[in-house]
Write a structure and sequence with these properties.
With 252 residues, this protein is an alpha/beta fold. It has helices at residues 19-29, 36-39, 45-48, 52-61, 63-73, 77-80, 89-99, 114-130, 145-158, 170-177, 182-191, 218-226, 229-246; strands at 5-8, 15-16, 84-85, 103-107, 139-141, 163-167, 192-197, 208-212. 32% of the residues are buried.
Length: 252
């Protein structure tokens, strides 16, 4: 099958947390009184969370606020600039760009202020370029996984040709699919392919899902992609079955 465009998620498929950097940023931004000699022996978020000062902060702030802050601070530009590269990612992406040069990135990275988000965007593009990924300036920033589906559906309105997204949030994307309009669902079921990074096996869904367990498996993935026309048809049938079960009328 000819793919018109490829989009790549960044966190997970391409970038991993640099936990050595992150724990020090946590200590700094949460204003934790942790002696440097104690922090010097901490090299993972798991060990960081076991420190007495961190446990005390969690008890004071409450679990919900504590977990929100840890998740938010992952997107500090200082951390994103030093993120680790997922194993074999550069080689795998080079194989994809040879398959289809129209390749870009689609991520839900953002800060909680406009200026922070702009810094996140700059750090992301700089990191992609520094790590040798192709087209580092071609990044689409979305609020969440559902917004990725809406964006791709919008592109399909003007150009109804197959679009591939490599992303590691398969279950979330399938869940979010059913929150879209019927027209968006119809477009995605006919023209959207999810390369499910980290998935070990094929998965029935409302759109075509092809597993990509690891970047070392790109050759097998591309072979499956070449035969994905039949899978897309299956995905469309799956969506129609679900709609019939809910009493919906399909949009064709």
């Amino acid at each position: 099958m000819d793919i018109a465009r490829i989009f790549l998620d960044i966190d997970g498929p391409l970038a991993m947390k640099n936990e050595d950097v992150l724990v020090r940023l946590y200590a700094q931004y949460l204003h934790l009184d942790i002696p440097e000699r104690e922090l010097a022996d901490v090299h993972s978020v798991h060990d960081f969370q076991s420190l007495p000062a961190v446990k005390a902060f969690k008890a004071s702030a409450g679990t919900a606020k504590y977990e929100f802050l840890l998740a938010l601070l992952v997107f500090l530009p200082e951390h994103l600039a030093q993120a680790d590269v997922t194993e074999n990612a550069q080689k795998g992406v080079q194989q994809l760009v040879q398959y289809q040069p129209e390749l870009a990135y689609c991520t839900a990275r953002r800060g909680n202020t406009e200026s922070w988000t702009l810094d996140v965007q700059e750090a992301t593009r700089t990191w992609l370029g520094n790590q040798g990924f192709p087209h580092p300036q071609d990044v689409l920033f979305c609020e969440d996984p559902c917004a990725k589906l809406k964006l791709i559906a919008g592109l399909l309105v003007g150009q109804p040709e197959p679009i591939l997204l490599i992303d590691d949030l398969k279950d979330q994307l399938i869940h979010d699919f059913y929150t879209l309009t019927h027209h968006e669902q119809a477009l995605l079921s006919q023209h959207f392919i999810l390369g499910a990074y980290g998935a070990q096996a094929s998965h029935d869904g409302p759109f075509c899902v092809i597993p990509l367990p690891d970047w070392a498996d790109v050759d097998t993935f591309l072979e499956m992609l070449s035969g994905s026309k039949e899978v897309i048809h299956h995905g469309r049938q799956e969506r129609q079955r679900r709609e019939e079960g809910r009493g919906y009328v399909g949009v064709h």
